[in-house]
Design goal:
With about 180 residues, this protein is an alpha+beta fold. The protein is built from 3 helices and 8 strands.
Length: about 180
């Protein structure tokens, strides 16, 4: 992965340029919300205790490297809605490093928990930079309703592995605060 810390020409907001996923270049601007999905290497569902561990690792860097807006750990995949925070030099933490940390630490701990070894996650992840508040609400709603659409629960708040931040304006309430 190559990283360049040069600001993009059309913006005064610091941005990282990095290459990953089949060497396609990506630009990451500061203070942009990103929707991320990553999948289990195989389709066998994670047991409950493994999902507990994964959600814990998704939330670990909230307020440190990322602002986590929502997370759901499904039986075979994870959705995150996050904003990378800035490092000591003012640059946004790179998304590839954030995802590598979440996937790497969670995989080690899931393997330890289950007495297994080897890769847990597919190598690639899907990410999409959100462009509007409407898009933010749509993605947050998508994450909240994912367990309901999958037939795992009747209401989002009944799904143990769903976390949504409290809205600063009070317009929304957390599904589950851990």
């Amino acid at each position: 992965m190559a990283i360049s810390n040069e600001p993009m020409a059309d913006s005064e907001v610091p941005a990282h340029r990095y290459d990953y996923r089949r060497r396609l270049p990506h630009h990451q601007k500061a203070e942009r919300v990103i929707f991320v999905t990553f999948r289990k290497l195989n389709r066998d569902p994670f047991p409950a205790n493994a999902r507990d561990v994964i959600l814990q690792h998704c939330r670990h860097d909230d307020g440190k490297r990322i602002q986590l807006h929502a997370a759901v750990v499904m039986p075979d995949h994870v959705h995150l809605l996050l904003t990378p925070l800035r490092d000591e030099q003012g640059w946004p933490y790179g998304l590839p490093a954030i995802i590598k940390l979440i996937k790497g630490v969670s995989a080690r701990n899931v393997n330890k928990l289950l007495g297994s070894s080897g890769p847990v996650w597919q190598e690639e992840s899907f990410d999409h930079i959100l462009r509007s508040n409407e898009s933010f609400q749509e993605k947050q709603d998508y994450i909240r309703k994912n367990p309901v659409r999958a037939g795992l629960v009747g209401k989002p708040q009944d799904y143990r592995w769903l976390w949504v931040e409290e809205s600063p304006c009070g317009a929304d309430t957390p599904v589950r605060c851990l």
